[in-house]
Design a protein that fits this description.
Layout: E1 11-14, E2 17-20, E3 24-26, E4 32-37, H1 38-41, E5 51-58, E6 62-67, H2 68-72, E7 80-81, E8 88-95, E9 100-103, E10 109-111, E11 114-115, H3 118-127
Parallel strand pairs: 2-5
Antiparallel strand pairs: 1-2, 3-4, 4-8, 5-6, 6-11, 7-8, 8-9, 9-10
Length: 131
């Protein structure tokens, strides 16, 4: 599975697919979280790409594969605005044994499926006709 990197560490494209893979961090309470920046969302173009997928890797072997449409439903409230660019930043926490993504600002959430290996991710992507 080769997705060419778009000169950014977290954005990859292939054919009609746009993939964002944000960095994940662990907070002091042992909970995992990630940010999605508006500046990265601006690079997605519906006319050029038909599918927008977010893959979150939770070290060492767990993954979440999310269609952007599902995450977009809980992106009504940004967590902060970047000072330099005036772009919004959305922060999410991964909860409920990695089965729920929660907007850290307004606590809205979406359910997700935890995948426990790279081969499961590839199988899931094949279900979306990505290969």
């Amino acid at each position: 599975m080769q997705f060419p990197n778009r000169k950014l560490l977290s954005i990859f494209t292939k054919a009609k697919i746009f993939m964002l893979s944000p960095a994940v961090s662990e907070n002091q309470q042992g909970k995992y979280w990630f940010d999605i920046r508006e500046i990265n969302l601006d690079k997605f173009n519906n006319r050029e790409y038909g599918l927008f997928i977010i893959i979150v890797r939770i070290v060492p072997d767990n993954f979440l594969v999310i269609k952007f449409d599902n995450l977009n439903k809980i992106m009504k409230t940004e967590s902060k605005v970047e000072k330099n660019s005036n772009k919004k930043v959305y922060s999410f926490e991964i909860t409920n044994k990695f089965k729920r993504i929660v907007n850290k600002k307004d606590k809205t959430y979406t359910e997700v499926e935890l995948l426990s290996s790279k081969s499961e991710v590839i199988k899931k992507l094949k279900c979306h006709n990505i290969f």
